[in-house]
């Protein structure tokens, strides 16, 4: 018996997120075991008049490739993927790994060239040139990360992913407008006091068109404007290893000191290239149903009352000139149960302890986004 919630999700992805039009080519890239959703997506793409293309990828096989990869091999792989991507008008990426730490034992030098020579060239075509959306798929591994039963997690998942994103989209307009008028941002919290400028860098709302689940408004700091200290209280996975208590010190935009539960590994990633020690994104999370981290960035970066700060590559839509093969969303939660915190725009307090406190932004508080 088919799950009607899955059919609804597939319909939303095809008709709202990617907005498939007749004659368009749509690539479904599925990592892990996702047959039910892939089949539902194929049906919906055909109904919309598009042509579905499917890639089924086993994360354990990807690990084996990465373990001993070489530059010539990765260049050929990237050329093949780029050629395919250039023929697509849309992209739906599904992630359903049974083990988020699958890449944890891949040597750092291999991970670096795998990211730089294979993943980045493909992303540089997919992101600016296709209508794309990326999502996770509910499985026992994700339920375990969320400390929930599989059945309870599935209920949570569909509640989050089938949210009324059109309503959220409208509510975000006021925050976008305010960010576009803001120069100086200050972030304050436990072991955090950071100042930077977002002047003249566009704010972009994310309400179901690029990520499912969704719920953030992002921009980027002026590249050399970041000064101070930030300590992230949410766990932050990167290439199969989960970092805890990441503390970054900035001077004129650059990370000059970085510590965590594995300081050496953290700094190896930040030394991947010149841009990895500068910030490519600042975003505010507002999804009312996502409350706590589950070591999955597509969920964690949308946590109600959170923000994230991203070493590495910026987005073209909020361009600050920073380029890197790294794009690492690091999350901080500012609700009272996580230590509290404040966000200031041009010396005006706009959010305190995870709740918006000025009238024009109250529409983004959780009780106003649910339902």
Automatic annotation (TrEMBL):
It comes from the Bacteria. Keywords: Aminopeptidase, Hydrolase, Metal-binding, Metalloprotease, Protease. The lineage of its organism: Bacteria, Bacillati, Bacillota, Bacilli, Bacillales. Its cofactor is Zn(2+); Co(2+); Mg(2+). Signal peptide: none annotated. The keyword Transferase does not apply. Belongs to the peptidase M29 family. GO terms for biological process: proteolysis. This is Aminopeptidase. GO terms for molecular function: aminopeptidase activity; metal ion binding; metallopeptidase activity. The keyword Protease applies. Gene3D superfamilies: Thermophilic metalloprotease (M29). InterPro entries: M29_Exopeptidase (IPR052170), M29_N-terminal (IPR035097), Peptidase_M29 (IPR000787).
């Amino acid at each position: 018996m088919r799950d009607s919630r899955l059919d609804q999700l597939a319909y939303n992805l095809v008709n709202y997120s990617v907005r498939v039009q007749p004659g368009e080519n749509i690539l479904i890239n599925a990592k892990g075991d996702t047959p039910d959703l892939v089949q539902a997506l194929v049906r919906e793409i055909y109904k919309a008049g598009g042509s579905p293309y499917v890639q089924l990828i086993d994360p354990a096989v990807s690990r084996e490739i990465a373990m001993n990869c070489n530059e010539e091999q990765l260049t050929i792989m990237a050329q093949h993927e780029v050629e395919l991507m250039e023929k697509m008008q849309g992209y739906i990426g599904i992630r359903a790994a049974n083990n988020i730490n699958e890449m944890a034992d891949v040597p750092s030098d291999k991970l670096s060239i795998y990211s730089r020579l294979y993943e980045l060239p493909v992303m540089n075509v997919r992101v600016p040139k296709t209508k794309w959306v990326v999502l996770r798929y509910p499985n026992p591994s994700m339920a375990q990360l969320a400390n929930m039963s599989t059945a309870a997690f599935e209920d949570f998942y569909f509640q989050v992913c089938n949210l009324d994103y059109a309503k959220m989209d409208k509510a975000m307009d006021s925050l976008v407008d305010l960010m576009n008028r803001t120069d100086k941002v200050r972030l304050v919290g436990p072991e955090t006091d950071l100042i930077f400028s977002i002047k003249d860098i566009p704010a972009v709302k994310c309400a179901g068109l690029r990520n499912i689940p969704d719920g953030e408004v992002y921009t980027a700091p002026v590249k050399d404007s970041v000064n101070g200290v930030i300590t992230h209280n949410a766990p932050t996975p990167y290439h199969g290893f989960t970092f805890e208590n990441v503390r970054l010190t900035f001077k004129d935009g650059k990370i000059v000191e970085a510590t965590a539960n594995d300081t050496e590994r953290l700094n190896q990633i930040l030394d991947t290239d010149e841009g990895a020690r500068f910030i490519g994104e600042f975003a505010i999370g507002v999804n009312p149903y996502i409350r706590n981290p589950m070591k999955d960035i597509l969920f964690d970066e949308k946590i109600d009352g959170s923000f994230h700060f991203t070493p590495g590559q910026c987005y073209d839509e909020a361009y600050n000139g920073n380029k890197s093969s790294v794009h690492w969303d690091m999350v901080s939660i500012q609700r009272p149960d996580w230590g509290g915190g404040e966000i200031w725009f041009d010396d005006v307090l706009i959010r305190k302890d995870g709740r918006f406190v000025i009238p024009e932004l109250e529409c983004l508080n959780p009780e106003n986004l649910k339902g």
